[in-house]
Write a structure and sequence with these properties.
Layout (H helix, E strand, L loop, with lengths): L26 H25 L3 H5 L11 H11 L2 H32 L5 H10 L9 H11 L6 H9 L3 H14 L2 H9 L4 H30 L2 H6 L8 H7 L8 H36 L1
Helix pairs in contact: 1-13, 3-13, 4-7, 4-8, 4-10, 4-12, 8-10, 10-13, 12-13
Length: about 300
């Protein structure tokens, strides 16, 4: 007698999960970005609110979060109390010279440490990196003595020249790492065979390669010099030579602080940096990303 067997019933596999689209961003990422944006923007908004109200409104609890209508009066008071426009021009000159000088000098030093062979190169670079652990405040007293001997006290060169000489060790390290990866030794050897000297190799080959990183470095140095307070406060005496941060300090007296007036000056000092970021922000981000991927 023939027996028949029934084939086993195949189990239905669970439905496959639809793969996530590569361009799709989860909702929590947007929420995190919104929260981070709020944390970054709120101090600027709060500064604007306090600058547009009076001191009593700024100190009340709970604090006011809606701007008032006193901003034009506060701005007029800022310009009548100190030569604020002259101070902003001084800051533009100082920060511009320091930013451009740092970009060029760090590019030169980074190129030397990355591609030139000379005795003691690695030891000197190690010493340079170790200087990042030394607080810059330790140099104020000898730096002031040197500036005083040169007769530069209460002048802009007393701020510009030390800012150029104190080149950032981080900037040199960054440019060195960038050139070590992007500039090949074969390209330099080919340039030397064609008769190019070291300066021509740097200016025509190395600097165009490292220009995005140097631009970002110069922009960081510009912002640092714009916000610098301690050294200009020590060396600058007359209001006509004040930088913008010293002018903000001059808006306050020793016994009572007009919070709205101080915030109005801070708001005016922040506006040029915001305008600068609007014009060069995309290029700055591109330079940072290029250095991150190449380095």
């Amino acid at each position: 007698m023939m027996t028949t067997t029934t084939p086993p019933v195949a189990r239905r596999s669970p439905p496959a999960r639809r793969p996530r689209s590569p361009g799709r961003v989860p909702w929590w990422a947007y929420a995190l970005l919104v929260f981070a944006t709020f944390i970054c923007v709120f101090p600027l908004y709060w500064m604007f609110v306090v600058a547009s109200t009076d001191t009593a409104t700024a100190n009340q609890m709970p604090p006011a979060v809606i701007p008032g209508g006193n901003l034009p009066d506060r701005v007029d008071l800022v310009f009548s109390t100190v030569p604020f426009l002259r101070s902003m021009i001084n800051s533009v000159v100082v920060a511009g010279c320091v930013g451009i000088g740092h970009a060029v000098m760090c590019s030169l030093a980074g190129f030397a440490f990355a591609k030139l062979n000379f005795r003691g190169r690695d030891t000197l670079f190690l010493v340079l990196v170790l200087t990042m652990t030394v607080p810059m405040q330790l140099a104020i007293i000898p730096q002031y003595l040197i500036v005083s001997e040169l007769g530069w006290v209460d002048s802009l060169q007393a701020v510009i020249v030390p800012g150029l000489l104190l080149v950032s060790a981080f900037g040199i390290f960054w440019i060195r790492q960038h050139l070590s990866v992007t500039l090949s030794d074969e390209l330099m050897q080919a340039a030397r065979i064609d008769g190019a000297n070291t300066w021509q190799i740097f200016w025509r080959i190395a600097f165009p390669i490292v220009r995005p990183a140097a631009f970002v470095l110069g922009l960081f140095s510009y912002v640092t010099a714009w916000n610098d307070f301690l050294w200009p406060f020590v060396v600058l005496k007359s209001p006509d030579n004040f930088t913008v941060q010293i002018a903000i300090k001059a808006l306050q007296n020793n016994y009572d602080i007009d919070l709205g007036l101080a915030m109005a000056g801070s708001f005016l000092a922040t506006l040029p940096l915001l305008v600068l970021f609007v014009f060069v922000g995309r290029r700055m981000v591109a330079g940072i990303m290029e250095g991150a991927f190449k380095g």
